[in-house]
Amino acid sequence: MARVSNGIDYIEFRVRDMARTKAFYAAAFGWSYTDYGPGYCEFNSGSLKGGFELLEDGQEPATGGALVVLWSDDLEASREQVLAAIGQFGGRLSRETFAFPGGRRFHFCDPNGYELAIWTEA
After folding, report:
1. What is the pLDDT of residues 38-53, one digit of tens each?
2. Which of 11, 52, 85, 107 is the right S-S partner for 27, CB 3.0 to 4.6 Å?
């Protein structure tokens, strides 16, 4: 994938439990990983790379900020995968599927409390 000047290139999440976080995203979306020691892991979603940084004891992840939105060509299948990962690793569905001009989407929180959305065209 080619890099675009001034385009989004990488995102990072600060996490409480590295193994559980990796397992959640692997189960839900099939992401792959490159470990850089016990406190940092790079993920590859196939279209974007980012990182998971392990929080130090007593720290909490900052769960506000920009909403990360993922694309799906089968929203219902993606929802089922997310629900299965939530059942196994924690998290929650935070907004049921809804329509908006141009598509449909739902929101979920991962085991660390980060809210993400998945959308598809109408």
Report:
1. 999 999 999 999 999 9
2. 85
In sequence order, what are the residues at sequence separation of 6 or more whose Cβ sits closer than 8 angstroms to the Cβ of residue 44? Answer: 31, 32, 33, 34
Q: What is the mean pLDDT of the chain?
A: 92
Domain at 10-121, CATH from 3.30.300.330, 3.40.50.150, 3.30.190.30, 3.10.180.10:
3.10.180.10
Residue in the structure block whose two tokens are 């449909």: 104
CB 29 within 8 Å of CB 81? yes
CA distances 41 to 21, 26, 32, 87, 105, Å, are 10, 13, 10, 23, 28
Strand (E) or helix (H) holding 33? strand 32-35
The pLDDT of residue 81 = 96
CA–CA separation, 34 vs 117, rounded Å?
A: 24
